[in-house]
Amino acid sequence: MWTFTTAFLRAGLNQWSGSSTGAYTGVLHGLKVALIKAPFSATPDLVIGDVTLADYTGYAAQTVAFGPAYDDPTGQPTMAAVPALIFQPTDAMSPNTIYGHCLVNTGGTTLYGAEVFNAPFNLPDQFSQLNDTPIVQLNTGSNYGNSIVF
Questions:
Q1: Is the pLDDT of residue 140 over 90?
Q2: Domain boundaries in the chain?
Q3: Residue 95: which of 127, 54, 56, 53 has the closest Cα?
Q4: SS3 for 146?
């Protein structure tokens, strides 16, 4: 069995995002981040129908772009969204409590990954906002090579 280096995994992340070519046409290009407003469990079998998406006034899933891969302080190949995504209601008519976020295709019909937040985040009105910087990371530790989205 091959053991791939972090340099190889970093190159793979750049291919996924398209940032290695400057064309930004990789598999991660054009995906959206959607907010989830009900408790859920993030599992490999999770599908879009298993989650309840946010619906506060002014809500829309946002297209995410990932920057070039880098090694985080622990040496894990990582990519972060650039710029950060800002989710903010336009009024107080439909407050939401956000339990996590997910990565979906452009049409919002296919869920590619999800993360449960450490604590729910309240978006009660137009004076509240959630600043979200999704990160894709390949863990070279105990589950070496498995992708982690957080």
A1: no
A2: 6-144
A3: 56
A4: strand
Ramachandran sector of residue 22 (left: φ over 0; alpha: ψ -120 to 50; beta: rest) = left
C-alpha torsion 105→95→93→33, nearest 10: -20
Full 3-state SS string of 95-128: CEEEEEEEEECCCCCCEEEEEEEEEEEEECCCCC
> Which candidate, 2, 5, 1, places its Cα nearest to that of 76?
5
pLDDT at res. 2: 52
User: pLDDT tens digits, residue range 75-120?
Assistant: 888 888 888 999 999 999 999 999 999 999 889 999 988 999 999 9
